[in-house]
Amino acid sequence: MFSLILRRLGSVLLVMLVVAGLSFLIFNYLGDPVNNILGVNATIEEREELRRTLGLDQPSHIQFWHFLQRAVAGDFGISYRNRIPVIELILSRLPATVELVFCATIVALSIGIPMGVYCALRPKGLISRILQMISLVGISIPQFLIGMLLILIFSVELRWLSAFGRGEVVQLGWWSTGLLTHSGRMALIMPVITLAVFQISMIMRLVQGEMQEVMRADFIKFARARGLTDRSVHLRHALRNSLLPVVTVVGMQIGSLIAFAIVCEAVFQWPGLGLLILQAIEFADFPVMAAYLALVGFGFAMINLTVDMTYLFIDPRMRRK
Amino acid sequence: MTSVQIFLHRFYDSDLFWKFRKTPAAVIAAAVLLVMVVCAVAAPLLAPHTPFDPGTLNLMDSRLPPAWLEGGTITYPLGTDEQGRDVLSTIFYGMRISLAVGVAAVLLSVVIGVTLGLIAGWFGGWVDAVIMRMGDVQLSFPTIMIAFFIDGITKAVMPTDLRELTRFYVVILAIGLADWVQFARTVRAATMIEKNKDYTAAARLSRVSTMRIVFTHVLPNTLGPVIILATLGLGVAILTEAILSFLGLGMPPTQPSLGALIRVGNDLLLSGEWWISMFPGLALVLLVLSVNIFGDWLRDALNPRLK
Fold first, then answer.
1. What is the pTM of this model?
2. What DSSP string runs through B245-267?
3. Which CATH superfamily is domain A88-273 in?
4. How confident is the model at residue B76 (pLDDT cuts 50, 70, 90)?
5. CB-based contact (8 Å) between A14 and chain B?
6. Rounded to an integer, what distance in angstroms lies between the CA atom of residue A93 and that of residue A71?
7. Chain-chain contact of A263 with B246 (C-beta, under 8 angstroms)
8. Is the distance from CB of B106 to CB of B240 less than 8 angstroms?
9. Alpha-carbon distance B148 to B207, whole Å?
């Protein structure tokens, strides 16, 4: 078990190193740190001076080491476009994306798992067939189209919900939340549905597949032979054992939710990290791109690590190895 | 009988075709797909208008609703966009680009993945370790994220005029590079099995060169699952391209794929001109859905274990 944890940590480190390397390349070689600080009108002497003070005359590996030290301390330079430190920009946008992804995950799990269980128990039923058909459409329809349909129905036709922004937000220290105001919660509805539809379909299909597999196992027959109620057999024996692969996939899905949040934020003009990176690409704002890549890479590595640890925690077989 | 006839006859009698005929969903999906591919490939012949020839456009005809709504005309069955382009015709041309990018991107992933998978599986050792570690690192990111970054950074780096010329290829490259790992993994596993079979030993004894053994003898035996993965990957690739274009990264409005058409229509959604974005959207969903249904069926019919 200990060697397993070490191996996982090793692969997380590898991922982080690759990501940091790419981020360094973007920051140092695609962007121009000297122009970034002095502007284009500086003299050659000023440039050389700054180049020395920033350590840009040193060999690449030493520069990379300094980049890593600054990155760990949260220093990613100054945004070309907004002229404020990148880390402030990211921290001001982070809460919006985290709240969106968090709510979408909760919604997806609380709808997807019951639907999957139902379809696994009555695979031939009419409702199951309809749910399966819907889930197939759910994984084939692109997120932005769902968002646009919702805007068309609820904002343009019915005029119930606002199509843009987060509504009113409340500041809790540096964290800004939309969950505490009415307009903030209303603004969450459409983006969360947009993000959750794909996840619901995915989780439903997965839970159903796994559970049908587990229902054929011998220990289910034994449980029935022991005279346990259907409820106990289905939920305590079958569902618990079919949730293992679901944990992995949910972890991966949270990762892809961060990616798909970019699309969702573009549709609803949601002021999160996704809009930030889209604007950064539009204006070739390399420090922001480098910081975003590093942050997202770190996020994915942590999610993967958590998934592996969860596995270790809930699957006794993994511990014995 | 000619060889073509023999081939058709054998195909008609095959198990695969029998299973196909017995699955209505697969037949419908294949039919829809066929119609869409024909419309896309023959767009210059079939499209009622030539939407990308500015000489034929009439700004007086812009933003017309579909024919069955008040103010619509039969000349433009699905209405027109803000430049007066016929929506139905732009969809035909858009599908052409979406399909071309999707197919090319999947082919690129297959070529990269199969080559690396063969090398990793055949040579093993540190070559294998390096390639598969690379794959692991890449797999910890979603495909769409990788494609997004490749496309985004290229966009930020390239000067505008060069970018306009190369966009088509950049999108293919971005999606193709993002999705090779699954092919490499499958082919690597199959190669490691084939490597120890008698026929490769026989080939080696007959002094057949390593390259030749790998590419003409081992390769064909590893391709079964690749075909299934590639079909399912096509749906993902088309969707990825649509997402990139929707975000303003993929194809430009002057050479629009379905995603780029939806992006253009999105700006007009709030003023109520839904047909400009929703019909291309519908075409996109139909395309991806029929690819997915057909791919699912192919997987179940050829190799249920992959499920």
1. 0.84
2. HHTTSSS-TTS--HHHHHHHHHT
3. MetI-like (1.10.3720.10)
4. low
5. yes
6. 18
7. yes
8. no
9. 46
